[in-house]
């Protein structure tokens, strides 16, 4: 089991601090006697190093425990206000223990100086304060670098999303099918052709502006989904059966832009459509305010549009990088369910 540390840089801090710490600690306890010979210095340093290394391990365990109890950046002063008094008390016990040990077991030629006991405790407390602030600074530095890295990953994910969205805008297959359907409607029913053209305009207008933001209102995504499904319904007729049933209070929530494009394209391009066995798509919600997209399974043997899987992977990555609840996908023999967490505008991570 790996050793839990306050920060990844804690071993480096320990190595840099331990030599001057032990040297001056011995000087306070024994006076200049520790410098009478090289052998006495090495012996006193080695014994003290082992003793204080064990003590340091106890300190580290306490520090990690308190950090785990109050891990947030806003808990900094609470952590410090708890750590320092605990460390000061522990230092008093550790130094008294060192004096008692060296006095009771004369393993050194030097004898501890009782009059220096509390000066040694004071020094130990000062060093604990310094080490605590150094470790806290290192830990926050690591969090800051990690947050920069996560932010960069999130930006890259959104850039990929914008690229995938652009592919959707200019996808020749998608445009060909839409224009082919529109051409047929113009000849058969001009009124339906006008409605179809209006839906095409709404879809492409949203695709052109929807991926410039990290989050968009759910109501905008649902307007897009409605228009997209209307186009699909016009193309496939009774081979597809769709329904959107969402409460009005949910519409103020937010969602990454083009999420519905990714989900709906994944459903449509990975399933075979036929009038005998219509593809059913239901967009609903649960009691916790998640968006639920359920569809029947009529999977194709060969999926020609490989971007649909890439788009879904990218959407899942977005949620993961936001440090929020992840998208869940469950599947049975006859249906697949996408569960998408929604974001509260007041607590959205980006």
TrEMBL record:
Keywords: Kinase, Membrane, Transferase, Transmembrane, Transmembrane helix. GO terms for cellular component: membrane. This is Histidine kinase. The keyword Transmembrane applies. The lineage of its organism: Bacteria, Pseudomonadati, Bacteroidota, Saprospiria, Saprospirales. GO terms for molecular function: phosphorelay sensor kinase activity. The chain crosses the membrane at residues 12-42, 48-68, 80-102, 117-135. It holds the Pfam family His_kinase.
């Amino acid at each position: 089991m790996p050793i839990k540390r306050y920060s990844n840089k804690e071993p480096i801090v320990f190595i840099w601090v331990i030599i001057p710490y032990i040297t001056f600690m011995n000087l306070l306890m024994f006076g200049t006697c520790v410098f009478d010979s090289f052998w006495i210095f090495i012996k006193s340093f080695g014994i003290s190093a082992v003793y204080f290394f064990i003590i340091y391990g106890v300190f580290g365990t306490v520090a990690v425990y308190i950090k785990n109890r109050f891990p947030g950046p806003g808990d900094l002063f609470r952590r410090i206000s708890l750590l320092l008094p605990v460390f000061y008390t522990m230092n008093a016990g550790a130094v008294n223990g060192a004096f008692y040990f060296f006095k009771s077991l004369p393993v050194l030629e030097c004898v501890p100086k009782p009059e220096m006991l509390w000066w040694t405790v004071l020094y130990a407390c000062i060093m604990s304060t310094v080490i605590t602030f150094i470790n806290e600074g290192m830990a926050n530095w690591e969090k800051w670098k990690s947050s920069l890295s996560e932010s960069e990953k999130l930006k890259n994910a959104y850039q990929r999303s914008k690229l995938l969205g652009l592919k959707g805008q200019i996808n020749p297959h998608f445009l060909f099918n839409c224009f082919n359907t529109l051409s047929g409607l113009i000849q058969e029913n001009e009124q339906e052709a006008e409605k179809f053209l209006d839906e095409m305009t709404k879809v492409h207008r949203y695709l052109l502006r929807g991926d410039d933001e990290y989050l968009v209102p759910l109501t905008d995504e649902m307007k897009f989904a409605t228009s997209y499904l209307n186009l699909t319904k016009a193309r496939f007729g009774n081979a597809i059966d769709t329904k959107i049933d969402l409460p009005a209070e949910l519409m103020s929530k937010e969602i990454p832009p083009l999420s519905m494009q990714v989900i709906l394209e994944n459903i449509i391009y990975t399933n075979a459509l036929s009038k005998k066995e219509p593809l059913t798509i239901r967009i609903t919600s649960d009691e916790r305010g998640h968006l639920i997209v359920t569809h029947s399974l009529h999977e194709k043997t060969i999926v020609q549009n490989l971007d649909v899987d890439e788009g879904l992977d990218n959407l899942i990555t977005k949620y993961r990088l936001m440090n929020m609840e992840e998208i869940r996908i469950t599947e049975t023999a006859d249906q697949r369910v996408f569960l998408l967490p929604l974001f509260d505008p007041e607590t959205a991570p980006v």
